[in-house]
Amino acid sequence: METIAVYWERRIKTYGFEKLADLALIEFSYPLGRIKSLGEILSQNDLQALNPKFMIAQESDGEISLLLCAAADKGKRFHESVKRETGRASHRYIHPVGIIFFHGPHFGDRYGIADATFSALLRSDIPILASGCSSSSIYLVLAQDSMDKAVEVLSKPFEVAK
Amino acid sequence: MEKLKIGGLKQSLELCQFDLKGRNSSEKIVSRVTKLLASHKINIDFLTCNPNSTRYHQFTFCVSQDKVFDTSKLLKAKGVLPTGWEMDCREHVGILTVFPHQSALNIVGAIMIAWATHSIPMYGLSTSLSAVSFVTDYRLIEKSVEVIQDSFLLPENRSPLKPELRYYQSDTVKGR
Fold first, then answer.
1. Which CATH number does B15-91 carry?
2. What superfamily in CATH does domain B4-13+93-153 come from?
3. Which one of A68, A107, A135, A139 makes the best mutation probe of the B interface by having the most chain B beta carbons within 10 Å?
4. Which of A51, A92, B72, B176 has minimal Cβ neighbours within 10 Å of its Cβ?
5. Tell me, what's the pLDDT at B170?
6. Which residue of A has its CA nearest to B54?
7. Over chain B, what is the mean pLDDT?
8. Would the CA dihedral through B40, B45, B51, B55 be positive or negative?
């Protein structure tokens, strides 16, 4: 059965922009062939207090790169722990960073959401440190001091549903 | 060992994954590619970008498997990708979304262990407010679901695993 419905938003509706500040961004790479051992590291009980607010992983050239954002104090300890556990040289730690995340009633069902987001930020010269879009949500990791401006510029293509 | 509780599972339709990467920084690449896809009415089901990675800049996204040819053609057009950037296309992938009850970090770790034990690949992941989405081989997605069902405690009244509706976007919008 096919049902045809027509609906077009002049401005893309979102349920609102959520902001999280004073976070640390931590990134490290791990050999893909040893992903089980990475899983064992991430499953350790003493790491669970980290409670990351955002996480992405990308795979390439036999390595998996894990990037996460967590509260600054816990993030610093996690970074030190990962350095010890993995013994790897390729690490990244940035503090302070912030996250803006938002979702909407039609995210995931239509094209143009990512374009509206990234074009708005590019036009205003707001650099993105990382991003993840899944399950109808958009997460943007930005330098902390650019968060307010980012919400301002995203409020043009997106309309907060009332 | 006590099984971790999760709230549910959802699997995607068949997708293809594109990995764009290069050593030279390019703030514009994500915007350029998403604009190009939007102008051709191609929906992005999953996206991760890490413009300043320790190794290189990487932008990964998934679109419907039936858009693989159109998307490849668009990305291969001259001038779309900056000099030195390369594109990898991995067809027949799927996304398995896990709705966690407990720590996302613990769940990511446990799924890495469980999938590695059963030789199920993990091509990427991204968290959202209430879920973790994993990209894996679509041909192994049923097995990946079984492994998770064996490894975690799921509620009895969980929602359906597979999408029951498929949305198609019309090429024309009347009354716009």
1. 3.30.70.260
2. ACT domain (3.30.70.260)
3. A135
4. B176
5. 62
6. A90
7. 88
8. negative
CATH number for A12-19+97-160 (one of 2.70.70.10, 3.30.2130.10, 3.40.50.620, 3.60.110.10): it is 3.30.2130.10
| Sequence spans of domains, chain A | 12-19+97-160, 24-93
B79 phi-psi bin (left φ>0, alpha ψ -120 to 50, beta other): left
The whole-angstrom distance between B156's CA and the closest CA on chain A is: 22
Whether A42 sits inside 8 A of B34 (CB atoms) is no
- Contact list in A for residue B122 (CB cut-off 8 A) is 35, 57, 59, 64
Give B14-54 pLDDT, tens digit per residue.
999 999 998 876 668 999 999 999 999 999 999 999 886 66
Q: For residue A4, give the amino acid letter.
A: I
User: What average pLDDT does the structure give for chain A?
Assistant: 88
Query: Can you name the residues that pair with A7 across neighbouring β-strands?
Result: none
Averaged pLDDT for residues A87-102? 84
Alpha helix locations (H) across chain A?
35-42, 72-86, 113-123, 147-154
As given in the structure block, the two tokens for residue A96 are 């302070």
| Spatial separation of the C-alpha atoms in residues B17 and B92, rounded to whole Å | 8
**pLDDT higher than threshold 70 for residue A89:** no
ipTM value, please give it: 0.91
